[in-house]
Amino acid sequence: MRSDNLHELPKGLPVPQDDGACAHLPGMRLPALALPSTRGRAVELSALRGTTVIYVYPRTGRPDQESPPGWNDIPGARGCTPQSCAFRDHHDELKRAGAAQVFGLSTQDTAYQREAVERLHLPFELLSDAKLSFARALRLPTFEVDGMKLIKRLTLIAREGVIVKVFYPVFPPDRNASDVLVWLAMARGDEY
After folding, report:
1. Alpha carbons 112 and 187: distance in angstroms, whole number
2. E strand or H helix at 52, and its extent?
3. 167 pairs with which residues across the strands?
4. CA-CA distance, 21 to 18, in Å (whole number)?
5. Phi, psi values for residue 67, rounded to 5°
C-alpha cells in the first residue's frame, strides 16, 4: 500500500509556471490519429463533432504502488487522481454546458488506464498515447522521470477538431474541471 493518499493533494506542492510551451496550440487542428480507448475502441479526436474536452495528465497512480522518486517535487506532476475525479464529478454538468464528449489522455497503456477507470468509476474514456504520437504531432510539453517520458498536465477544448482553448499550466489539478465548466458556460453565453 502507498504511504500517501492518492485522492488528496499534499500541501506545499510546487506551482508550475507558464513556460509558453502551449502557446502554439490555439487554432491547430487535432491530428488524425486513432488512439486506443479504455472502452476497447480507437478514437480519432480530429473527427469528432461538436465540442470535445481532453484533459491530458502525466500518469495516474495506483493504491498498491508508490509514486516515482521525487514526484511531488516536479511542478504540476502530482494530482492526476484528483483531476480525474473532478472531471467525473462534473461530467454531467460539462455535458449540459456543451461538451459533446470528455476524454482523459496519458502515455500509460490501456490496461493500466482501465484499472483507473474501474477504480475511480469514470463515466468517460481514457485514451492512451503510449507511443507519444499525439504529443509529438501537437508538440505538447513533456518531461522525464524514472525512465518514463510523460506529457505535462494541460487541457484542450476542441470544436469540430480544432483547438479553441488551452488550459496550461493546470494548477491545482482538482480545480481544472470546474474551470473548464466555467469557460464552456461563458463561451455559450450562459451565466455561471
Report:
1. 35
2. strand 51-56
3. 155
4. 8
5. -70, 160
Cell readout for 182 is 466555467
Q: Which three cell numbers stand for residue 114?
A: 482501465
Contact 104, 84 (CB under 8 A): yes
Half-sphere exposure of 143 (CA within 13 A, CB side): 18
Rounded-to-integer distance, Cα 178 and Cα 47, Å: 26
Three cell numbers written together for 139:
508538440
SS3 78: coil
pLDDT at 86: 98
Closest residue by Cα to residue 99 from 173, 190, 7 = 190
Residue with cell 461538451: 99
Predicted confidence at residue 2, as pLDDT, reads: 55
The x, y and z cell numbers of residue 44, run together, are 480519432
Indicate the helix (H) or strand (E) that contains 72.
Answer: none
Residue recorded with cell 495506483: 62
Residues linked to residue 34 through DSSP beta bridges, in sequence order? 44
- Mean pLDDT value across the chain: 94
Beta strands per DSSP E along the chain = 34-36, 42-44, 51-56, 99-106, 125-128, 142-145, 148-151, 154-159, 162-167
The pLDDT confidence band at residue 191, using thresholds 50, 70 and 90, is low
pTM for the full model?
Answer: 0.94
